[in-house]
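Exercise: predict the fold of this chain.
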Amino acid sequence: MPGPVPNREADLARPRERKGSDVQPVTRGVARPTKVPNADRTWHPIAKRLWDFLKESGQADFYQQSDWALAYSLCEDLSVYKKSGKRSGQMLQTIYSAFERLLVAEGDRRRVRIELHEPEPEEQSAAVLAFATTRRISDSSNR
């Protein structure tokens, strides 16, 4: 989506669909299981770190084999760039632009309406808490 980075959905006064903006239908497919390749040991340390962080990042939940292949290729390109004695600003910009397609930065994700949130704390149900309390009382009275 071109233009400025949209606000987070939570920052809006009302949902986008209620603002009268066009909500585009989504064409759905089936996500396939993926296998993430290991980083190349010869990569520049920055490329290795980026690869490792990509594997742990929330947007990786959406990656398919082709995304991992693109990310691998880009880390290879970044490594070659970082190791080369002659660096080109245009080459670095091209590499960074390609990473945008993998939704590496928050602004890139928000442009396509993907927001990563902190995991919700697991709340125990009242029944589980009551059982635990009863068990503690029972255990202490048996001593």
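Check your answer against the key: The two ends are 66 Å apart (CA to CA).
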